[in-house]
Design brief:
This protein is mainly α. Helices cover 65% and strands 4% of the residues. The chain has 24 helices and seven strands. The protein is globular and about 75 Å long. The two termini are 38 Å apart. The mean pLDDT is 94. The chain binds zinc ion. Residues 384, 388, 411, 414 line the site of zinc ion.
């Protein structure tokens, strides 16, 4: 316990640069340019018989360039987040974006050379590369799927006016939608974000109307949005399967995540067979809402509304106490974000919405942005983002290339931090309503990140197959309704307009098969948390090791070394067991 009084403040970016127009920032940009020029001049040293020393010196030059580049890019990004309306910030962002992409192109020759190097020679170099090893290995994973330089150039060039253009058109069409909703007799014109706030209100009628309006608009354009989807999916198969020789469409994404295909299949299979877990929850929720059966409109309906508020000082104290109770080391690291003024928690006009943790490099604590307004969600968000920050700090001994964990593990410390907080709150909170609210929100969130995303991925897998066999947009919508039926069973009534839900999910258009990473990350954390509950203190060193490995090993290897076998369905089942435990707790509470 400490007796500090935490105040909401703006962060300081002094650890990066004194300001957006400072000579130090200009000097940084100039230094990167010089380093890149020097590296270009050394290009001739990249030969098959390169010595270990020369090779490492090139890697170190790359590291220096990337590390400084990240500092410049982080400064620009953070300064812009502070006030997105600031013109100096806007032009700095644009300039830095352009600069970074130019420098990346100019140093691309290293990666191309590295991929072309014969395996035996590369292996020798990697084996003696210490912390850089996995980074070097990961680049080479793509060798069997890399085409000739000329073909790669054609793909890049044609993508700009091809699939990327289609994705842009999808986003242009859908971002200009205006939704109409009558609330308390007044017709409002809303953005999608504003409209979706109403699916979480306690008014059942408004919840239904909000969804109906969403799918009225998407349904109107479904023929064209569906056609865009079909084309993106065909492009994906043509490139990833026919040309790059991935075994199937999802395999291309699995390789980016460096997760074996069989592990992803196991994960999705376990989700499919665990559909009844959430069905049980929806049946319970129906009782609490006093209805025979839940409608799809009611999935996010609030069951209990507690309007408990937290001051910033209370929130910070609770989060740090919860972390301390887990492991004082975690709390000490989280505390640094406050002490070193790397936290911007104020709500200000023009400031970016939401929250994030942004690591500039392994040598500095990350910067954390919150928009703290005192709701219980804001306290969880604080625990979440500080978890990201602790994760980065635990991996600070790695290089710029290897300290940041891969996507499937990127949400581990953040989600675990939230669980630590929930446990702490449940132990200290005496108000029954607040406790109930915490438990219900937990399961609601787990549904949204685990099951919903898993079923999106299952739909994608099916849709890619069906489109390959010539399925029409109508047939895809039919397959989507079947997918929902399997997900909800007899626990939820799904209205017909939900057949257009899939055309409203940007992820499946923009980054095919991205969504299962959410399922992977959340279920992983639930399983880890289960292990913590059963093993107690003994678990902490194993867990700390997972985090401190950062991105210096393949995700499956990181977990394997901690005794976790993600190829075993029982491991994923363990995550569902935690949820069953939560649901059982809720079932014991008498319905009022
Ligand atoms: Zn996160």
């Amino acid at each position: 316990m400490n007796n500090k009084n935490y105040q909401q403040t703006r962060w300081s970016l002094q650890d990066l640069f004194p300001g957006p127009q400072s000579p130090q920032l200009e000097a940084g940009i100039e230094k990167i340019t010089n380093l890149v020029e020097n590296l270009e001049k050394r290009r001739a040293v990249l030969v098959d018989d390169i010595s270990q020393d020369v090779f490492l010196s090139v890697v170190k030059d790359m590291e220096t360039i990337v590390a400084l580049g990240q500092k410049v890019a982080t400064f620009a990004g953070l300064f812009f987040s502070e006030d997105t309306q600031n013109e100096i910030a806007q032009s700095l962002m644009a300039r830095v974006d352009q600069f970074v992409s130019e420098m990346t192109n100019r140093t691309l020759f290293f990666e191309l050379w590295w991929k072309a190097l014969p395996q035996e020679k590369a292996q020798k170099l990697m084996d003696a590369s210490g912390d850089y090893q996995y980074w070097l290995e990961a680049i080479r994973l793509f060798i069997p799927h890399t085409l000739t330089e000329a073909e790669e150039k054609i793909i890049n060039t044609k993508n700009v006016t091809g699939v990327s253009a289609l994705q842009m058109i999808y986003s242009s069409i859908t971002n200009r939608y205006v939704y109409k909703l009558t609330v308390a007799g007044e017709e409002k014109e809303l953005t999608r974000g504003e409209l979706m706030m109403y699916v979480r209100t306690s008014d059942a009628d408004i919840r239904a109307k909000a969804y109906q309006e969403l799918y009225r608009i998407y349904g109107n354009d479904a023929p064209i949005l569906g056609q865009i989807y079909q084309t993106i999916v065909r492009d994906w198969r043509n490139e990833q399967v026919s040309m790059r020789k991935h075994s199937d469409p999802i395999a291309a994404r699995n390789l980016v995540n460096d997760i074996p295909d069989s592990v992803v299949n196991t994960l999705l299979d376990v989700c499919k067979t665990s559909a009844p877990v959430f069905q049980r929850f929806f049946k319970l929720k129906a009782k609490w809402l006093g209805v025979e059966r839940l409608r799809r409109y009611d999935v996010y309906a609030p069951v209990v509304e507690s309007d408990k508020r937290y001051s910033f000082d209370e929130a910070a104290t609770i989060v740090l106490d919860a972390y301390t109770r887990f492991d004082p080391k975690f709390a000490t690291l989280a505390q640094r974000i406050f002490d070193e003024n790397h936290l911007d928690s104020e709500v200000r006009k023009g400031k970016r919405g939401g929250a994030f943790s942004w690591a500039a490099g392994p040598d500095l604590p990350p910067w954390v942005m919150l928009n703290f307004q005192g709701k219980s969600d804001d306290v969880s968000t604080m625990a979440h983002e500080l978890g990201h920050a602790v994760h980065a700090m635990l991996a600070a001994h790695h290089s710029i290339f290897t300290f940041h964990s891969n996507l499937p593990l990127a949400e581990t410390a953040s989600t675990f931090g939230e669980m630590v907080l929930v446990d702490y709150l449940l132990q200290h909170e005496t108000d029954e309503t607040v406790r109930r609210d915490i438990l219900f929100s937990q399961v609601d969130d787990a549904y949204a990140t685990i099951m919903r995303q898993a079923f999106f991925a299952l739909f994608e897998r099916e849709a890619h197959e069906k489109i390959n066999n010539g399925a029409s947009v109508g047939e895809l919508a039919e397959a989507y309704m079947q997918n929902l039926k399997e997900q909800f069973g007899d626990s939820v009534d799904v209205a017909d307009e939900f057949r257009w839900e899939w055309v409203s999910i940007p992820h499946i258009f923009d980054v095919p098969f991205y969504v299962y990473a959410y399922t992977f990350g959340q279920l992983l954390v639930l399983s880890l948390y289960q292990q913590y509950k059963s093993e107690g203190e003994a678990f902490i060193p194993r867990y700390t090791k997972i985090l401190s490995t950062g991105g210096s090993k393949a995700p499956v290897k990181v977990l394997e070394e901690a005794g976790i076998n993600v190829a075993d369905p029982a491991f994923w089942q363990g995550g569902f067991n935690v949820l069953i435990g939560l649901i059982e707790q809720l079932e014991t509470i008498p319905v009022k």
